[in-house]
Design a protein that fits this description.
The complex is a heterodimer of chains A (242) and B (225). Chain A has a single domain, classed as Rossmann fold, CATH 3.40.50. Chain A is 29% helix and 25% strand. The longest helix of chain A is centred in the middle third of the chain and has 13 residues. Chain A is globular and about 50 Å long. Chain B has 225 residues and is mainly α. Chain B has one domain. Chain B has 8 helices and no strands. In chain B, helix 1 crosses helix 5, helix 3 packs parallel to helix 6 and helix 5 packs across helix 8. Classes of the chains: A alpha/beta (242), B mainly alpha (225). At the A-B interface, helix 2 and helix 3 of A face helix 1 and helix 4 of B.
């Protein structure tokens, strides 16, 4: 029996969510919560349901049953508050190839109704070391640079909940280090972080909590240090990175 | 006010994307001109029968050119899942619809001007005597057609045979707008015998407003998974 969710005040909650794609159940009776100041690693093999769960948290997918709540409100019916508070990075970059990096950020920033947008764009570009490429068309960027631009887009509105689906994809080692440093600071700033990665040790070095998914079910949801790695099928390297 | 800003942002973004790749407008104009030219080739110009068919020729050209544009309008949204990216923002989906529809309306309107100019030359016909009435019919007919094109373009964008699906889904409903537009355009070009030009415009405006409002209200369900 996996440990129960002991979060005092979960702000982003998933309650008994099941998701079917045709006859295939991608998620089965999933319940969990995420509060500000937490960092959680969502881990599981391919097809475990990680991306489906993350997409559901940002209302890009609808549960077949169950509900997703933000601040006690169902995000399907009243999702504006959740959307304003969440920054999301997915496998897709959400960038227009025919627009420059700055134009992309300006467009998405305007949809969030941000004030002082130019300053916020400058800050986001600086944060992900994209200042020198702000005038480059997104289609002309390498995969790694597109990922950095996508991260800048996700952080542009200073979200209190950061949800990242394999955020290290395509990044070079220096960018990985920068992103790791940034993600490590988020809980200290009172922000919540939920991310997935296939590199367990990399994720474990950043997260305080582990949510292990397998075949659409939550196998473990609790402190990372107390996780029964053996029964979860997780083989750890020589020692956890810190 | 913020709603207007969001609509403006989406419209400007679409115009900028189109300015950069120049695919949508060019293909719409060329395809529309080809249709008008082919019909002109098939009929004897300045023939009364040819002029009787001119409204249908124009609206068929507008309809097919529109399909090209509506498909392209969502091609850039499909790439990198940008439409999903827009829905991540706390924006009413109806505003996304309005922004996209205005861009479609603008592109189709420009293509219509080109097609009408070519038709006037090749069919040796002047639209000037009924220009005001024709402009109103063209505006309302195009508005309704662009609204349907926007919502069905969004639906088709998520299907595998999207180019075929848009036509198959859109035309059975757009038929009513096109039929009334052809009829009203014909009446206007011939000069309404009772001078009641308002009736023709009102019919096209009525059905277009109904389809536009319905598309506006239903768009959020289209964006859902």
């Amino acid at each position: 029996m996996p440990p129960q969710d002991h979060i005092a005040k979960p702000v982003l909650e998933v309650r008994n969510v099941t998701k079917f794609f045709g006859d295939l159940a991608a998620l089965k009776e999933v319940s969990l919560g995420l509060a500000c100041g937490e960092s959680a690693l969502l881990y599981g093999p391919n097809g475990a349901g990680k991306t489906t769960l993350l997409r559901m948290l940002v209302s890009l997918a609808r549960p077949s049953s169950g509900e997703v709540l933000f601040g006690g409100r169902n995000i399907e019916r009243d999702g504006a508050g959740a959307k304003a508070a969440i920054g999301f990075v997915s496998h897709a970059t959400f960038l227009y190839g025919e627009l420059t990096v700055r134009e992309n950020l300006k467009f998405f920033g305007s949809l969030f109704g941000l004030s002082d947008l130019e300053k916020k764009i400058d800050a986001a570009l600086e944060l992900f070391d994209m200042r020198s490429r702000e005038g480059v068309f997104a289609r002309d960027l390498s995969r790694g640079l597109q990922q950095r631009a996508s991260l800048a887009r996700a952080f542009l509105h200073d979200p209190s909940f950061v949800i990242l689906d394999e955020p290290f994809t395509g990044l070079d080692s220096q960018s990985v280090k920068q992103l790791e440093d940034l993600l490590r600071r988020l809980p200290e700033q009172g922000k919540a972080l939920l991310f997935s990665t296939h590199d367990f040790e990399q994720g474990a070095a950043l997260a305080g909590r582990l949510i292990a998914l397998k075949a659409g079910r939550v196998r473990y949801n609790g402190p990372l240090d107390a996780a029964p790695f053996g029964s979860l099928g997780i083989v750890r390297a020589a020692g956890p990175k810190n | 006010m913020s709603s207007l800003k969001i609509i403006w942002s989406i419209l400007v973004k679409d115009l900028r994307v189109e300015w950069r790749n120049r695919e949508t407008l060019a293909s719409m104009c060329v395809f529309g001109l080809l249709i008008v030219f082919l019909f002109n080739f098939a009929f004897e110009t300045a023939n009364e029968e040819a002029l009787r068919l001119l409204p249908a020729v124009l609206w068929v050209a507008i309809a097919f050119a529109g399909v090209l544009g509506f498909n392209r309008a969502f091609a850039s949204e499909r790439e990198n899942a940008c439409l999903e990216g827009m829905t991540l923002a706390p924006v009413d989906p109806s505003l996304i619809f309005v922004g996209k529809m205005l861009a479609n309306l603008l592109f189709l309107g420009i293509a219509e001007v080109v097609m009408a100019f070519a038709a006037a030359l090749w069919f040796n016909f002047s639209f000037l005597p009924a220009l005001g009435e024709l402009l109103l019919i063209a505006f309302f007919g195009t508005m309704g057609y662009a609204a349907l094109g926007t919502i069905f373009g969004a639906i088709a964008a998520n299907t595998r045979m999207r180019e075929v699906m848009l036509t198959v889904l859109q035309f059975p409903i757009a038929f009513w707008i096109l039929m009334l537009s052809i009829d009203s355009t014909g009446n206007a070009m011939r000069g309404d015998p009772d001078g009641n030009w308002f009736g023709g415009v009102a019919r096209v405006a009525g059905i277009s407003v109904v389809f536009t409002v319905a598309s506006f209200l239903l768009f959020e369900y289209v964006l859902e998974e």
